[in-house]
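Possible regression after last week's pipeline update?

I re-ran a chain I had predicted before the update to compare outputs. Posting the input and the new output here so someone can diff against the archived version. Not blocking, just want to make sure nothing changed silently.
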Amino acid sequence: MPKDTILLERDGIRLALDGTGTVATITLCNPAKRNAQSPALWQALTEAGRLLPGQVRVAVLRAEGPSFSAGLDRQAFTPEGFDGGPSFLDLGRGDAGELDATIAGYQQAFTWWRRTDLITVAAVQGHAIGAGFQLALACDLRVCADDVQFAMRETSLGLVPDLTGTKPLAELVGYGRALEICVTGRSVHADEAERTGLANLVVPAAELDAAVADLTAALLAPPRDAVNETKALLRTARSHAEDAQYAAERAAQGRRLRDLAGAAE
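New output (post-update):
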C-alpha cells in the first residue's frame, strides 16, 4: 500500500494524505503539552483545510498522546502572550472591531470541517477540554475512546465558548443540558457522551484507530455525490421550514436521478 504523503507539519498540526488520495488525516501532534491550542495552531488548522485536495472524501481528526486536547494554552492569558501575537489580555484592551475580526479568524479553524464536499470524523481519547471539545464538535462524527472526558471550561475563566461549539452542542444534547454542561464546566464521560449523541460510537481505547478505519471505509462505500447531497440536506434540516426542506430534497433527488440516467446512456 502506498505511504501517506505529508502535506503540512507545523505548530502542532500534521496533515497527511493516504495512498488513495481520498482520506486525509489531521493530527494534533504536541502531546507534551497535551495538544493545547494557540492562535498559531488555529492558523495551521485553517491552512490544512485549504490544502485538502479535491479528491479527499473523508477527513479524520486525531491526536497523539493520552489527551485529545487540553484546550487553550494558558500562555494566552500571560502579559507576554504568544510569540508573534498579542496576549488575550491585550486583545481585550483593543478596538472592538479588531477583536471581532481576530476571533472570526480563529473560528475559521473550526468551520471548514462542516463543508458538504467531505465527511469529517474526530477520533477522541482522554481529555477534550474547552477548545478541544469545540474542535471535536466541529466534526460531523465523533468516535470516542472509553476514557474520553469532554468539558467546556470557558466560564470558569470568565469567558464563553466562542470557537463555534455552542450550536452543535445545543443541537446534539438540547438547550438545557448544553447550558448545564457549559456553566458548570463538569466532565462528560463516555457513557453519557454516547447516550446523548455527543459520541457516535464509544470503543476501548486500544480499538480507537481500528474503529475509525472501519467507519471511514463505510463512509467511502456509497457514491460520493449521493453522500455530499445527503450531508447538505441534513445540514439544512433544522433551519429550513418543512416546505423548504421538502423542496431541497426534491431538487437533490432530481440531480441524482438525472446523473444516474445520464450515466446509463
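Follow-up from reviewer: compared with the archived run. The first helix runs from residue 39 to 51. Marking as no regression found.
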